[in-house]
Amino acid sequence: MVHGLSPYVPGEQPKLQNLVKLNTNELPYGPSPRAIAAIQAAADDSLRLYPDPGASALRETLGRHYGVPADHVFVGNGSDEVLAHAFMGLLRHERPLWFPDISYSFYPVYCGLYGITSRSVPLADDFSIDPADYLPGEAGSAGAIILPNPNAPTGRALTRAEVERIVAGNPDAVVVIDEAYVDFGAESAVPLVAQYPNLLVVQTLSKSRGLAGLRVGYAIGQPALLEALDRVKNSFNSYPLDRLALAGAMAAIEDTDYLARTCQTVIDSRETLVAGLRQAGFEVLPSAANFVFARHPGRDAAALSAALRERGIIVRHFSRPRIDQFLRITVGTDAECRTLLDALAQILS
Ligand code: PMP
């Protein structure tokens, strides 16, 4: 059976040192020092004991942070695992699962893995998502919907009102909003959860909290949806988070000042990077994420990516129709962005 699968190809994690690594949307800064201290403090004899399978302390911390009860929070080993559980437990339906034709490339992989039929909904000409395209109409109605907001790899975001239009317009379909990048300037759908039993919002500590290496993701939704995720989790991996991850995640969530500071720094660097890229002749899509999606009208994106690599700078290029002339560039430190812009100036001259 499985030989028919086409697995997801993750962004490269090169072994070489001293590269300017702008290819996988990690934070260019470390996590909150309080998270590191909490992980160190948790590394003691208690590691001989299993962790809390229900992660109740972390779920309470997340619930407090988002203003929802702890029974509205589900946690997993990175949002990829939470999403996988959602595909298996919630998104299979007689009618197809709808998602944008250009979005997170793990979605079609999960569909293949779990035998879910899907319909890819084309982005608008300006690479935005049009909420009207997700309402029941000529194309039928969705069995379920999943969207990243902001979208990846474009970086374009929907407003909360636009997300609400999709959720309210599909009362019989589960709608998953994948908010991996939401903290960098988009509006979260979490405040809609109390009102909409069909809405599940998925977030991660991998991006804005600088903890991709800890593998912690979570979903916020009403308990009836989370029960389906729990059933999958308990059939699959009843201890998704270890004691170190639980301790680090709680401290990271509680350090709201650190989150606000690092996100603002990234947003400021993004605006400088966008201005520099535009000055160098690139067309850059508006981004509400910690990456930008840019193309140069006169230059081949694959060749640009290769030329940057020769100079020790790694960005992401997707050889997919419609986006094969774009580069997805993670917002690094100001110094890394400067290095990238200097290299591009050399390459383009
Ligand atoms: N959703 C989107 C849109 C992403 O780009 C990523 C990161 N590749 C993830 C989810 C998964 O992130 P993680 O498993 O690290 O939480």
Automatic annotation (TrEMBL):
Entry's Gene3D superfamilies?
Aspartate Aminotransferase, domain 1 (3.90.1150.10), Type I PLP-dependent aspartate aminotransferase-like (Major domain) (3.40.640.10)
> Any one Gene Ontology biological process term?
L-histidine biosynthetic process
Primary enzyme class:
transferase
Its domain of life reads: Bacteria
* Catalytic activity field: L-histidinol phosphate + 2-oxoglutarate = 3-(imidazol-4-yl)-2-oxopropyl phosphate + L-glutamate
UniProt-listed PANTHER family:
HISTIDINOL-PHOSPHATE AMINOTRANSFERASE, HISTIDINOL-PHOSPHATE AMINOTRANSFERASE 2
Read off the NCBIfam families from this record: hisC (TIGR01141)
Protein name stated in the entry: Histidinol-phosphate aminotransferase
Organism of derivation: Orrella dioscoreae
Task: From the UniProt record, report the name of the gene that encodes this protein.
Answer: hisC
